[in-house]
Amino acid sequence: MVAEPRFSDRAPAHASVLIALVVRDRLTVLLTQRTQHLSSHSGQIAFPGGKADPEDRNAVATALREAHEEIGLQERQVQVLGNLPIYTTGSAYWVTPVVALVQDGFRLTRNPFEVEDVFEIPLDFLVDPANHRRHAVQWEGKTREWLSIPYQDGDTERFVWGATAGMLRNLYKFLIA
Predict the structure, then answer these.
(1) 66 belongs to a structural domain
(2) Is 171 helix (H, G, I), strand (E, B) or coil?
(3) Average pLDDT of the chain?
(4) H or E element: which one contains 67?
């Protein structure tokens, strides 16, 4: 289990995300930008995913349900490859990253309440350590550290950071093992 330093006192909650690798000439990773009005992680870049519901059979079911709710990705379009180790966030989520392939040709319908934008970044860029940046800040008497992966997407800078960047770093470690 990979863990960020904890900064929340709430009880841990299980969650899952879908690391969707889109099969194109160059593998890409499907990402979302969350809307600004959400109460947690507003405006951040994230994988499709979220908190487990009691009716979810397992972590894969959570990731697939959330991807469908957030961006309209159909389960039949997804070939699950497996899970990465649980990633524990500082905000007390136990997140299971579910890695899957998605063939080109899918259609998405984003949920405008939760998702501002859906886009792709090349996998080779995201897992290249030369693109990974480490940050630290003093907050409430403690040092908080995080990873970021800035990406220039045409005229838009995509700033992948926090748990999403951490899970991508774990994917990189898995791929080179």
Answers:
(1) yes
(2) helix
(3) 90
(4) helix 59-71
Residue 109 lies in a domain: yes
Write the pLDDT tens digit of every residue in 55-98: 999 999 999 999 999 999 999 999 999 999 999 987 788 999 99
Cβ neighbours for 116, distance < 8 A, ≥ 6 positions apart: 32, 33, 34, 35, 36, 43
The residues, any chain, with a CB within 8 Å of residue 37's CB and separated by 6 or more, are none
Pair 31, 19: CB distance under 8 Å: no
Q: Are strands 156-161 and 45-46 parallel, antiparallel or unpaired?
A: unpaired
Look at residue 76 and give its three-state secondary structure: helix
Range of the domain at 70: 2-124
Contact, 61 vs 71, CB < 8 A? Answer: no
Question: 137-146, pLDDT tens digit by residue?
Answer: 887 787 777 8
Tell me, yes or no, whether 150 lies in a domain: no
Give the C-alpha separation, 68 to 64, whole Å: 6
